[in-house]
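Worked example (supplementary).
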Amino acid sequence: MGPRVVYIEELRDHVGDEVTIRGWLFNRRSSGKIRFLIVRDGTGFLQCVATAKDTEPQSFELCERLPQETSLVVIGTVRADPRAPGGYELLLSRLQPVQVPEGQFPITLKEHGVGFLMDHRHLWIRMRRQFAILRIRDAVLWAVREFFKREGFVATECPVIVGTQVEGTTTLFPLDYFGEPAYLSQSGQLYLEATCMALGKVYWIGPAFRAEKSKTRRHLTEFWMAEAEAAYFDHEDNLALQERLVRYVVEYVATERRRELEFLGRDATKLLAEVKGPFARVTYAEAVRIVNGRGVPMEYGDDFGAPAEDALSGHFGKPIFVERFPAKIKPFYMKRAPDDPSVVLCADLIAPEGYGEIIGGSQRVDTEEELISQLREYSLPLEPYRWYIDLRKWGSVPHSGFGLGVERTIAWICGVRHIRETIPFPRMLDRLYP
RNA sequence: UCCCGGGUAGCUCAACAGGCAGAGCAGCCGGCUGUUAACCGGCGGGUUGGAGGUUCGAGUCCUCCCCCGGGAGCCA
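After joint prediction of all chains, the assembly is encoded as:
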């Protein structure tokens, strides 16, 4: 048995010790009699230093030959050295290859085009930038779970195969369910409304599918949403909850993943400043005026396009709730404002810096009469929604909820322009491989 | 679906007005005891996305198709 096996992220506690690291060869450099290996192990990257004096001869020889992405076990002494990236390095005693690649690894440390990288996504995720983003993704999802746990929400699940269309079939992926038409869910919301009447405050993190043929940096056909629904929550409770969630997530990531944010060139201080104070809050009508005032044409009744969202986020420099949209451009399940039935008690949360809408939420229709009349207004059939209507017959209460777009949130926190890098294997229009 | 841009070596790109298809990196060989995408010297590397057309001659011009990227609409 060799020295104790440790992970790179634990090295600060092992300075002076001889340890074993199991990982992959990320890069190597040589200056003749001194050779440097960069080894990664999933928790970080480590510089290993090999010299003829300190390193066992056969291992020293291998340092000059092993190709990129060789899986290997390295044994050496941990030491702190300011010349090492990360501050710690391993003085290599010996190494043992696990598997040596025959050819050259497709992804080098040089430039590559996006198309090439996407075709090699299964290997691309081993590179430093992707490593940082995916570890931030992990932190975002943990933060969401921790937040809801603290707020007393119950974790639950929604079906992914559904028979009901939420708003028209064009955005749904159809499925043959033993001869019955079925779809991949575009949101768990309707089911969450049922579940919150049983468990009070509920949330789930699950996939959502949109068959829309959109081709932008903000869209995936398969993406993840953190959805919450709470009985007895009105519109105001809903916004307060969302604001606490977003602030919690950002503060959590800024603390737990500072190193990764730094690597991405993201200024954690700026992020924290953006969520520190109360979020901006405007009505849809005010938002339209602001957008117009910044030179982006749009009329009352239009939905916000990407340029309009960018204009808004540029105006405030912090997250913005846009409330009270015209009912006509929002789905059937949103509750009308009591003082103005042409608008609904909803809000979209627009992220700062042009990252777009990260939350959509609303107070829901809670009476059977309203619900049936709105389904009719939207020309939707009542039959598939029978169970949903049923909820309004048996102790219906005011309730509200929202869905947070996980990838857009990660893109904003990471400061990456395209959300395809925020999920291990993005599904997009014309992108099903790998 | 629409509007742009592109497809040349393993990768990133160049090639004037139609006239011998090139560079950097990667790879291989050699050098270097503190490298940071290391550096220095040498070597090999091509059905120019596909099909057809114009021409003495096509990477370059024309037609169709395929693929990729950027943006729009729709949304989280």
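Two points are worth noting when inspecting this output. Chain A has a mean pLDDT of 92. The two ends of chain A are 39 Å apart (CA to CA).
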